[in-house]
């Protein structure tokens, strides 16, 4: 606490990102990064951009990138908003769209950045409990609210809500914005972007950090009705006119132009996820059905905390949350086949 802080700063409980350890030769399965590298076309596009032009500010509107994204998803480019990682996009959404007279609703077990933005921007919130099987029940969101936000698939559970159920939440809330955070949708889910022309209250966010393997480039996006996008632009242009640098704009655009690499790598991740799930189930784990690039699991007899500590001794880092309802669970990112083999070997020894 410093006397120089504004009163708000003393009250904040900031988000704690998963550790980025300095040690080498770790099997790092704690922050849902993609185990495969980005498309070579992305690297080439960034290399091409490395010249004297860096002395100039980037395009504040990221027009070319927004064009590429709009063509990719079949929407108009004024329905596309881009930001410095989807975390920044989400921040603008909380401040510009979800701060209303009534509380915003989100699941009790979900992405832990949501409550952080609520306290930063003074947004009132109400937690909606997931079912006993950690599922979202759409009926729970059909009550008066100032907005709704949930990841689909949800994090850290990995559980997916079918598009028809997402639509029920959107259709049942015509007077508030429903945000579907699709950070993990490309690992087997179906995007709600197909519904944005039908529902002016629907906003879908995505990131290039997971399925497109560009967590280090920091690019996220939102797609919805142009009025929602215009609202976000008003916030963005009151905060930072140049959220995406020159390298990020060209690199992100190139990522959408290499469908083959995108498809190949996400399919490998999905196949490995199913293999790891089956092997761990055989070791006495309950593994929630996942549509993401991670699994959420607990062991019949060993605690999550103990398992995480013992894996760490063997150089394998996974994520454990000391939170109600899920403090016995581990969230484990799906790695390369080799990394997953190491994980399974270690778990076999620890649980055998
Ligand atoms: C990873 C993640 C994000 C943030 O992605 P960035 O684009 O890297 O900021 C947003 N939402 C959820 C649910 C995530 O897991």
From TrEMBL:
It catalyses: L-histidinol phosphate + 2-oxoglutarate = 3-(imidazol-4-yl)-2-oxopropyl phosphate + L-glutamate. Its EC number is 2.6.1.9. Residues 26-347 form the Aminotransferase class I/classII large domain. Its cofactor is pyridoxal 5'-phosphate. One of its GO terms (molecular function) is transaminase activity. Keywords: Amino-acid biosynthesis, Aminotransferase, Histidine biosynthesis, Pyridoxal phosphate, Transferase. PROSITE patterns: AA_TRANSFER_CLASS_2 (PS00599). Pathway: Amino-acid biosynthesis; L-histidine biosynthesis; L-histidine from 5-phospho-alpha-D-ribose 1-diphosphate: step 7/9. InterPro entries: Aminotrans_II_pyridoxalP_BS, Aminotransferase_I/II_large, HisP_aminotrans, HistidinolP_aminotransfase, PyrdxlP-dep_Trfase, PyrdxlP-dep_Trfase_major, PyrdxlP-dep_Trfase_small. The modification N6-(pyridoxal phosphate)lysine is found at residue 210. NCBIfam families: hisC (TIGR01141). HAMAP family: HisC_aminotrans_2. Homodimer. Belongs to the class-II pyridoxal-phosphate-dependent aminotransferase family. Histidinol-phosphate aminotransferase subfamily. This is Histidinol-phosphate aminotransferase.
């Amino acid at each position: 606490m410093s006397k120089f802080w504004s009163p708000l700063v003393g009250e904040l409980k900031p988000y704690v990102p998963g550790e980025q350890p300095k040690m080498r030769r770790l099997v790092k399965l704690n922050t849902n990064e993609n185990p495969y590298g980005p498309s070579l076309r992305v690297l080439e596009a960034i290399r091409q951009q490395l010249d004297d032009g860096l002395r100039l500010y980037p395009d504040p509107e990221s027009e070319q990138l927004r064009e590429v994204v709009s063509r990719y998803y079949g929407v108009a480019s004024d329905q596309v908003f881009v930001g410095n990682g989807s975390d920044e996009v989400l921040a603008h959404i909380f401040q510009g769209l979800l701060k209303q007279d009534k509380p915003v609703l989100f699941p009790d077990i979900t992405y832990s950045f949501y409550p952080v933005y609520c306290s930063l921007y003074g947004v009132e919130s109400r937690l909606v409990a997931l079912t006993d099987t950690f599922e979202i029940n759409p009926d729970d969101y059909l009550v008066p609210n100032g907005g709704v936000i949930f990841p689909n698939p949800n994090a850290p559970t990995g559980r997916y809500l079918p598009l028809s159920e997402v639509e029920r939440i959107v259709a049942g809330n015509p007077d508030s914005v429903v945000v579907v955070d699709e950070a993990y949708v490309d690992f087997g889910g179906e995007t709600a972007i197909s519904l944005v022309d039908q529902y002016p209250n629907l906003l879908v966010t995505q990131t290039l950090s997971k399925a497109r393997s560009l967590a280090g480039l920091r690019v996220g996006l939102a797609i919805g009705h142009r009025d929602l996008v215009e609202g976000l632009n008003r916030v963005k242009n009151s905060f930072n006119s140049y959220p995406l640098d020159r390298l990020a704009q060209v690199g992100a655009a190139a990522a959408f132009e290499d469908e083959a690499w995108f498809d190949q790598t996400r399919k490998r991740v999905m196949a490995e996820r199913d293999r790891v799930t089956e092997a761990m189930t055989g070791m006495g784990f309950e593994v929630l059905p996942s549509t993401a690039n991670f699994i959420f699991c607990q062991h019949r007899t060993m605690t999550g905390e103990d398992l995480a500590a013992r894996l760490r001794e063997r150089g394998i880092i996974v994520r454990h949350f000391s939170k109600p309802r899920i403090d016995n669970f581990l969230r484990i990112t799906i790695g390369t086949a080799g990394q997953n083999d190491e994980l399974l070997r270690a778990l076999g020894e620890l649980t055998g």
